[in-house]
Amino acid sequence: DVQLVESGGGSVQAGGSLRLSCAASGFTYSRYSMGWFRHVHGKEREDVAVIYVGGSTYYDDSVKGRFTISRDNAKSTLHLQMNSLKPEDTAVYYCVSGTNDWGQGTQVTVS
């Protein structure tokens, strides 16, 4: 079974940084695109960043220049470096795989 386990969330002040990680298992990680989306209760899911098999990336306009997605195929891990955080970045962040599975989420709170 596919398992995605996020970590690294927390509470920071505006302008601070956090690094989210996602440990993946149960599928051939290197063969799938991976991404992060975020969700705020009562709002629609927002796709934040994607990294494709070849290494190319996509970022939502709201995070461009502040967030960096990366992957380590040898360790089956995904990361999201978040800098210059803003209060509007507050959400639960989910790791999502190209198999259309996602983890339990990790809370990010920016005050």
Radius of gyration: 13 Å
Structural class: mainly beta
Q: Please, how many helices?
A: 0
SSE sequence, one letter per element: EEEEEEEEEE
Global morphology: globular
Q: Largest sheet, if any?
A: 6 strands, mixed
Instruction: Trace the largest sheet across and list its strands.
Output: 2-10-9-4-5-6
Span between termini:
37 Å
Percent of residues in beta strands?
A: over 45%
Low-confidence parts, pLDDT < 50 over ≥5 residues?
Answer: none
Task: Please characterize this protein's 3D structure.
The chain is an all-beta fold. The protein is built from no helices and 10 strands. It has strands spanning 3-7, 10-12, 18-25, 34-39, 46-51, 57-59, 67-72, 77-82, 91-97, 106-110. A 6-stranded mixed beta sheet has the order 2-10-9-4-5-6, with no helix packed on it. It has a 4-stranded antiparallel beta sheet with strand order 1-3-8-7, with no helix packed on it.
Ordered list of secondary-structure elements with their pairings:
Blueprint: E1 3-7, E2 10-12, E3 18-25, E4 34-39, E5 46-51, E6 57-59, E7 67-72, E8 77-82, E9 91-97, E10 106-110
Parallel strand pairs: 2-10
Antiparallel strand pairs: 1-3, 3-8, 4-5, 4-9, 5-6, 7-8, 9-10
Features:
mainly beta; single chain; four-stranded antiparallel β-sheet; 50% strand; 10 strands; six-stranded mixed β-sheet; 111 residues; 0% helix
In short, what is this structure?
This protein is mainly beta.
